[in-house]
Write a structure and sequence with these properties.
Its EC number is 3.5.1.28. One of its GO terms (biological process) is peptidoglycan catabolic process. It is an enzyme of class 3 (hydrolase). By secondary structure, the protein is of the alpha/beta class. It is 50% helix and 21% strand. It has 2 domains: 32 residues; 172 residues, Zn-dependent exopeptidases (Aminopeptidase), CATH 3.40.630.40. The protein has a 6-stranded mixed beta sheet with strand order 4-1-5-8-6-7, with helices on both faces. A two-stranded antiparallel ribbon has the order 2-3. It is globular, with a radius of gyration of 22 Å. The model has no long low-confidence stretch (mean pLDDT 90). The structure holds zinc ion (ZN). The site of zinc ion (ZN) has 5 residues, from loops.
């Protein structure tokens, strides 16, 4: 009887320890799920691929300007960054995804500007793929539109190559329409580019803290 009792309580003790461990693992897994250590910054287009071209403004240049501002902010915070390009060079879409996928514990942010034949169209939008991408896209988008004082065109799930080929949480941010004369001239200023980068940065930090 004594042995049987001892065995039962030992079983019960281990069962409780296992349960507590499981809960701790689940909770910490949740708490640190967004704790990236590297941000892969993908400045869209470049080189022979200029992206959209309106009124003498090349999308590829604006993308790189915002990407570099974002890199500066992240570096100041001590977060490692990897740029898919740092100059006006052509990088293929598979290569961009490959650069991102070679990183561990990373998040992938592609930066673009938009264009439409309807030149009155303006505003910002963020694309995502996957459920964590949706939350990150929301965190960025809700800061981007008010801070840039432009139209909030919302977030959308869309299968752009760079984001669907990424093994990390990934988003593609469209920082404004260069086909709209007013937005194009605003987007060409360093203050607009800095504001866009700061909104993306703050979105990343907010998502990271979730
Ligand atoms: Zn683009």
């Amino acid at each position: 009887m004594t042995y049987a009792f001892a065995d039962t309580s030992r079983f019960s003790f281990f069962r409780w320890v296992s349960l507590v461990c499981l809960i701790v693992v689940l909770l910490s897994g949740h708490a640190f799920a967004n704790r990236f250590s590297t941000v892969v910054i993908d400045a869209g287009h470049g080189g022979s691929d200029k992206g959209s071209l309106w009124g003498g403004v090349r999308e590829s240049r604006l993308n790189l300007a915002v990407a570099k501002e974002l890199q500066t902010l992240l570096k100041k915070r001590g977060i490692r960054t990897v740029m898919t390009r740092t100059s006006d060079t052509y990088i293929s879409l598979p290569r961009r995804a490959q650069i991102g996928n070679a990183q561990r514990n990373a998040v992938f942010v592609s930066i673009h500007f938009n264009a439409s034949r309807v030149t009155s169209v303006r505003g910002v939008e963020t694309y995502y793929w996957g459920s964590s991408g949706k939350i990150l896209a929301n965190a960025i988008q809700r800061r981007l539109a008010p801070r840039l004082s432009t139209k909030n065109r919302g977030i959308q799930k869309k299968g752009y190559h760079v984001i669907i080929d990424s093994r990390h949480t990934s988003v593609l941010v469209e920082c404004g329409f260069i086909s709209n004369a007013r937005e194009r001239s605003r987007a060409s200023t360093s203050s607009y580019q800095k504001t866009a980068a700061k909104a993306i940065y703050d979105g990343l930090m907010a998502w990271r803290a979730l």
